[in-house]
Amino acid sequence: MNPLIEYHNTAYSRRQFFRKSGMGLGMAALGSLLGRQSLGESLAAFGNPLPHVAPKAKRAIYISLIGAPSQIDLFDYKPELQKRFKEDLKTWLAEQGERLTGMTSGQAAFPLAPSIFKFAQHGQSGAWVSELLPWHAKMVDDLCIIKSMHTDAINHEPANQLIYTGSMQNGKASIGSWLSYGLGSMNEELPSFVVLHATHSSPHANVQAISSRLWSAGFLPGRHSGVALRSLGDPVLFLKDTPGIDRETRRTMIDGLNKLNQRSFADVGDPEIELRMQQYEMAFRMQSSVPELTDLSGESEATYDLYGEDSKKRGTFANSALMARRLLERGVRFVQIFHRGWDQHGTLPRDLASQCKDVDQGCYGLIQDLKRRGMLEDTLVIWGGEFGRTVYCQGRLTETDYGRDHHPRCFSMWMAGGGVKGGQVHGETDEMSYNIADKPVHIRDLHATILHALGLEHERLNYKFQGLDQRLTGVEPAKVVKDLFV
């Protein structure tokens, strides 16, 4: 090593110091003026300012229906199939190259099962909606129904990981974590990404297990993980102070812990130590913010009527939808509501009706509540499951009862608010609700579109991990579906 070069690189005059560090000092000053609320973590990456494009929304709610709602019984109306009741599709499926799950691969026949539910056109758009969703029918002109979704996975766990983290592999960051990382927080009292787990009322529902991988930060800094609020008991475990510990004592304890952690960080430089300090501070603030958040005594009877009687019962979907609105009002960036039990392999007419009743009015109440408060225009709402259901019956078929297996080739979702053009139906399926006939939208396209609505371009939102520039949409092609927006 040349000692002259080494001296030149390490010895600075005062003038050199200010010249070379001016940009850093300027950014620090800007950060102190704007505050943490308005800065995304990636803002400091020069040449990659955020947001990338003018955002249409600044926050989002994702209503995640775990188990996969049947598109053919809810939004994808196929009246001509009534004439083909019980027609065996075994040969036809073989020609299509159908992927069969282990649950139906051994069936001797694959009888066609038309929906037994009535459909009608609603709103100025004339969109077809099943009788199972009467409240959705009332707000159909607020919705953009996407009938041409498709995915790569045929079983629940990989399909859920793909739609909520962008990959069927473990360890990836969830969509809410990416938004938190890219856009930062809008509040100091609550996490930027909150997860709600709604209960279901059907005693017969086939409830799929889900894991925290679906709201994990993966390789992103841990503070961007979703924080789950429990539907029963204390919303957050261990948040309350033990008897005899007042707020002043708790503050003193945390300050002492932070001093110890700061010394450890100075010695080893592990960023997880900084994360630990931030978590203690957030937990301290949440001791005040969470009780205020979950106290619904100030909500009016008109609001309860809007969401339905179940909104008064903690943990129900309607209550979770109301809680999601309250979280958004307090500056939470992304709220995800998980509602399980949508896996109807048998007795679909009974169980799907029960599941729809759980969420129907709650969804209506949420959209109308956001609209009347002037929040819908900058709040993106997404609704849907991980794939669709088959047109053929799984198990025994009768005129009043049937089941449906998993189907990745087409399914329906809807979006509302956040610049989305309501009163439209995007895409179409073939006469069998089997393949997409027009305007396909892959899961990666959905992710790119959600990011775009919030001002982020999917190809520019990257995080270096294991030598690769990781991103939500991965390395395969993805496109923003611009037709969805006004």
General description of the model:
- With 486 residues, the protein is an alpha/beta fold.
- The chain has a single domain (35-239, 304-484), classed as Alkaline Phosphatase, subunit A (3-Layer(aba) Sandwich).
- 34% of the residues lie in helices and 15% in strands.
- It has helices at 3-10, 14-34, 71-74, 90-96, 134-138, 156-165, 175-183, 247-268, 271-294, 301-307, 317-329, 348-372, 443-453; strands at 59-66, 119-122, 127-130, 143-150, 193-198, 227-229, 334-340, 379-384, 388-389, 406-407, 411-416, 424-426, 428-429, 436-438, 441-442, 463-465, 468-470.
- Strands 1, 4, 5, 6, 7, 8, 11, 12 and 15 form a 9-stranded mixed β-sheet that branches.
- α8 (247-268) runs antiparallel to α9 (271-294) and α11 packs parallel to α12.
- The protein is globular and about 75 Å long.
- 44% of the residues are buried.
- Residues 1-10, 27-39 and 42-48 have low confidence and may be disordered.
Strand and helix layout:
Blueprint: H1 3-10, H2 14-34, E1 59-66, H3 71-74, H4 90-96, E2 119-122, E3 127-130, H5 134-138, E4 143-150, H6 156-165, H7 175-183, E5 193-198, E6 227-229, H8 247-268, H9 271-294, H10 301-307, H11 317-329, E7 334-340, H12 348-372, E8 379-384, E9 388-389, E10 406-407, E11 411-416, E12 424-426, E13 428-429, E14 436-438, E15 441-442, H13 443-453, E16 463-465, E17 468-470
Helix pairs in contact: 8-9, 10-12, 11-12
Question: In short, what is this structure?
Answer:
It contains 13 helices and 17 strands. The chain has helices at 3-10, 14-34, 71-74, 90-96, 134-138, 156-165, 175-183, 247-268, 271-294, 301-307, 317-329, 348-372, 443-453, and strands at residues 59-66, 119-122, 127-130, 143-150, 193-198, 227-229, 334-340, 379-384, 388-389, 406-407, 411-416, 424-426, 428-429, 436-438, 441-442, 463-465, 468-470.
